[in-house]
C-alpha cells in the first residue's frame, strides 16, 4: 500500500477524513469464447479522501471509470465485479454490509440519469419514501420546505416524473439527498446539457451542502464546472488518479500543476491556450505495463514504461509521475 501524506484544505485540515478509499482496484469477470473467463480491469490502485465541509471533484473523460468509483463506494456493483483494497467511513471499515445499511441515509447518490425516478410514483411519495422516519407528517413538512427552497411548487408533489422538465428532476434528486440528511453526497455527472443559468444553480446546491458540513464528491468530465466550486480536484485517467491538486493550483499557465496530463487539461480550456494533445486514453481492455499516460507524455523516460508510478506528495498535492520532484 502506498504511504501517502494526504493534502487537506484549510476547512478540513484539523479533521479526519469522512471517507478514505485506499488502493482499490476493480475488475469484471467476463466470458470470452466458450467458457473461458477473462478479467477486465477498470480501476487500479486508486486512493482518495473526502472531508466534511468540502467539495472534491473527480474529473475525467468518458470511459475512465468515474461512475464505477461511485458505485463501488455505494456498494451497487454487479455480481461479476471484483473489488480489492479497502474503504473507511467515519473511521470504521466500509464493508458491503455497512454500505447497504447507510446507503440512502448517511451516503446519498445524485445520479447521472434523470430516469432514476420511478415513472409510476408521484414525486413527493418517492422523496419521502427514501427517508426512513416514523413520523410521516414531519417528513412531509420537511419535504415541502426543501422543495420550496429549490423552487419546486406545491403542485409538483403530485406530479409524475414525465410531467417535469429535466431541470426540475435534477432539483428533485438534489432535494432527496438534502432530506436524507446525508453526511456524504456523491453527485455523478449532474450537469450535462445544462445552460449557464441552470449550471450555476445546480452547482450552488452542492456548495450549499458543503457549507452545511457535508462531504461532497462531484464526479464530472467538465473541469470548467469543477473549478467553479471545488476545494480539490482529482484527475482521473484510465481508472486511476494521476493527480490531486488544490483549486489554487489551477492558475496562469498551470505551472503549479504537477502532472503533464493535468496541465494539458488546463491548457485545453478555451479561456487558456485551447490546445489539444495527440493520442487517446487507453481502452479498458488494453494491457498497459507502465504509466497509463506513457504514449501521450512529452517528458517520459524508460522507467515510465516499466511500471505504474506510485502516488507521492509534491508541493502540497499528490501526483503519480516519475518525473516530478
Number of strands: 12
Largest sheet: 8 strands, mixed
Strand content: 15-25%
> What is the CATH topology?
Rossmann fold
Mean pLDDT: 89
Helix fraction? 25-40%
Number of domains: 1
Backbone structural class: alpha/beta
Low-pLDDT residue spans: 3-13
In the CATH hierarchy, what is the architecture at level 2? 3-Layer(aba) Sandwich
Please give the alpha-carbon distance between the first and last residues.
21 Å
Shape annotation: globular
Fourth-level CATH superfamily: P-loop containing nucleotide triphosphate hydrolases
Order of helices and strands: EEEHEEHEHHHEHEHEEHEE
Number of helical stretches of at least 4 residues = 8
Question: What is the gyration radius calculated from CA atoms?
Answer: 20 Å
Order of strands across the main sheet? 6-7-8-3-9-10-12-11
Supply the CATH class. Alpha Beta
Amino acid at each position: 500500500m502506498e504511504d501517502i501524506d494526504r493534502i487537506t484544505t484549510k476547512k478540513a485540515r484539523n479533521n479526519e477524513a469522512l471517507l478514505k478509499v485506499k488502493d482499490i482496484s476493480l475488475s469484471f469477470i467476463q466470458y470470452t469464447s466458450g467458457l473461458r473467463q477473462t478479467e477486465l480491469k477498470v480501476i487500479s490502485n486508486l486512493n482518495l479522501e473526502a472531508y466534511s465541509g468540502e467539495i472534491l471533484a473527480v474529473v475525467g473523460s468518458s470511459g475512465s471509470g468515474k461512475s464505477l468509483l461511485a458505485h463501488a463506494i455505494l456498494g451497487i456493483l454487479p455480481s461479476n465485479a471484483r473489488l480489492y483494497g479497502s474503504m473507511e467511513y467515519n473511521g470504521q471499515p466500509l464493508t458491503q454490509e455497512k454500505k447497504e445499511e447507510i446507503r440512502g441515509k448517511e451516503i446519498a447518490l445524485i445520479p447521472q440519469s434523470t430516469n432514476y425516478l420511478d415513472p409510476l410514483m408521484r414525486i413527493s411519495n418517492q422523496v419521502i419514501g427514501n427517508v426512513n422516519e416514523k413520523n410521516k407528517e414531519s417528513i412531509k413538512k420537511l419535504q415541502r420546505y426543501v422543495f420550496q427552497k429549490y423552487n419546486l411548487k406545491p403542485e409538483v408533489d403530485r406530479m409524475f416524473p414525465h410531467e417535469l422538465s429535466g431541470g426540475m428532476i435534477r432539483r428533485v434528486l438534489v432535494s432527496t439527498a438534502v432530506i436524507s440528511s446525508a453526511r456524504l453526497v456523491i453527485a455523478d455527472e449532474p450537469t450535462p446539457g445544462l445552460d449557464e443559468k441552470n449550471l450555476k444553480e445546480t452547482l450552488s446546491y452542492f456548495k450549499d451542502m458543503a457549507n452545511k458540513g457535508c462531504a461532497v464528491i462531484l464526479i464530472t468530465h467538465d473541469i470548467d464546472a469543477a473549478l467553479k466550486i471545488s476545494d480539490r480536484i482529482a484527475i482521473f485517467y484510465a481508472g486511476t488518479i494521476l493527480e490531486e491538486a488544490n483549486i489554487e493550483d489551477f492558475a496562469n499557465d498551470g505551472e503549479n500543476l504537477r502532472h503533464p496530463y493535468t496541465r494539458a487539461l488546463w491548457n485545453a480550456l478555451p479561456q487558456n491556450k485551447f490546445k489539444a494533445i495527440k493520442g487517446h486514453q487507453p481502452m479498458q481492455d488494453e494491457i498497459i505495463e507502465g504509466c497509463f499516460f506513457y504514449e501521450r507524455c512529452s517528458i517520459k523516460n524508460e522507467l515510465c514504461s516499466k511500471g505504474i508510478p506510485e502516488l507521492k506528495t509534491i508541493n502540497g498535492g499528490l501526483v503519480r509521475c516519475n518525473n516530478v520532484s
